[in-house]
Amino acid sequence: MGPGRGSRGVNEHSVWEVFRKEKRGAAFEHAGSVVAPDADFAEAWAREQYGRRGESVALWLVPRDAIRDVEDWADEFDLKYRRVDGYSIKTRLKEARERAGTAGPG
Q1: E-assigned strands of the chain?
Q2: pTM score of the predicted model
Q3: 90 in a domain, yes or no?
């Protein structure tokens, strides 16, 4: 490696995802991305883009290559009852009333 060359080569840069916290106690939110040759440059550029006007109290920088994408979910457990949209109490009550032989409201 010669002077000014990173492990990626002379003109190659990495994409860094920037997460910012707007105020103390708030959650971090994705703010955008910066392209930089290294972490120090990415930090300086992120500070300039997302912090110089005081709109952020903290930043997180993550190389895009380090992000692990999780899209496939195992369907091993039927846990729909834990989700609000997966468990209909009206349907369950109707089924229970039918089994009990009692009529419900309307």
Answers
A1: 14-21, 29-36, 58-63
A2: 0.57
A3: no
Cα three-residue angle 41-46-50, rounded to 5 degrees: 160
Instruction: Look at residue 51 and give its three-state secondary structure.
Output: coil
DSSP string, 53-73: TS--SEEEEEEGGGPPP----
**Count of domains in the chain?**
1
Condensed to tens digits (0 to 9), the pLDDT of residues 25-81 reads 999 999 999 999 999 999 999 999 998 888 899 999 999 999 998 887 766 666 665
Map tokens 């392209």 to a residue: 35
Rounded Cα distance, 22 and 2, in Å: 40
**Assigned token pair, 44:** 């300086």
Does residue 76 form part of some domain?
A: no
For residue 35, give the CATH number of its domain: 3.10.20.520
Spatial separation of the C-alpha atoms in residues 86 and 89, rounded to whole Å: 10
Domain coverage including residue 41: 14-66
SS3 call for 6: strand
